[in-house]
Design goal:
The protein is α+β, with helices and mostly antiparallel strands and 116 residues long. The chain is 38% helix and 32% strand.
């Protein structure tokens, strides 16, 4: 069983392998009880958001026997949220990421990884 930070870092690697953009891993453990880490990334298109999402679910299941507790949103909406308990992964379109500005909302969180 992976530790939450290992799950989050694995997610970052999977997103990077699918050419996700502006990948951010935030440690929110001191700010809230909803999760320990947020992974935030941008997909360039609906198709890429779908590919990233599917690859994350597949790799976490196959390599670490992890299934999301819930999946919210759709690639068509421009925002998919994968809830793995201690790790919440947000895959956005650029438009939706700019709209919701999670980085601003969680600006007091510690940045663990930022890949532009």
């Amino acid at each position: 069983m992976l530790e939450p930070i290992e799950t989050a870092r694995f997610a970052v690697d999977v997103i990077a392998s699918k050419m996700g953009a502006d990948i951010l891993l935030l440690d929110i453990s001191d700010l809230t009880i909803i999760a320990d880490y947020f992974v935030i990334a941008t997909g360039e298109s609906e198709r890429q958001i779908k590919a990233i999402t599917e690859e994350l679910v597949h790799q976490l299941k196959e390599k670490h026997a992890l299934l999301p507790l819930s999946v919210e949103g759709t690639p068509m909406s421009g925002w998919v949220l994968l809830d793995y308990g201690s790790v919440v992964i947000h895959i956005f379109s650029e438009r939706q990421r700019n709209r919701y500005q999670l980085e601003e909302l969680w600006q007091k969180a510690r940045t663990v990884v930022r890949m532009a």
